[in-house]
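Justification of resources, computational component.

The compute hours requested in this renewal are based largely on the per-chain cost of generating structure records like the one below. Each record pairs the submitted sequence with a full structure-token output. That output is archived, and it is also reused by downstream analysis tasks.
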Amino acid sequence: MPSLIPLANVPPEMIEQLLDRAFGPGRHARTAYRIREGTDWLPGLSFAALDDDEMLVGTIQIWPVALTDPQGRQHPLLMVGPVAVVPEHQGEGYGKALMIASLDAIDGMSSEQPALPQVLIGDPDYYGRFFGFHADATGGWHCPGPNDPARLLVRTKNTAVLPQEGMLGPWMPAIAENR
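The structure output for this chain reads:
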């Protein structure tokens, strides 16, 4: 069983090294990076996994993003990922444990209102089967870069609160407050 700790307890350079190992040096060109550009991951929802020797083997980050509808209104979301595990430990349950920890933290954020919808880019079969993500509500959503619409997934208790169309991007509270 992996040991999970807050990602904020891990030096930033170690996180970057792990992400490079998991995704390669071209990772910054991915669409997900464009969606969350200019934001910082959320410390209370992001975690690291350590192996039995207390070595960093995985991370998950949660980011504040928004879906901007055709009228220019921002609808806040939480972007899940990257979920990164070093190659020699992939398939050992670290990624799943990290996902469970973050989703449990998101679901437990507020008892007064439902959690913000979560979005990710990933395998629909895996993330649907284990975590309840689906592409049913994201068909009219666009990304600031290339993406496969079938891999743009959302998790929420009520898809009716989501716009049918919009552009994903960083959450800009100042813009949202002025509308």
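The two ends are 47 Å apart (CA to CA). The longest helix spans residues 94-107.
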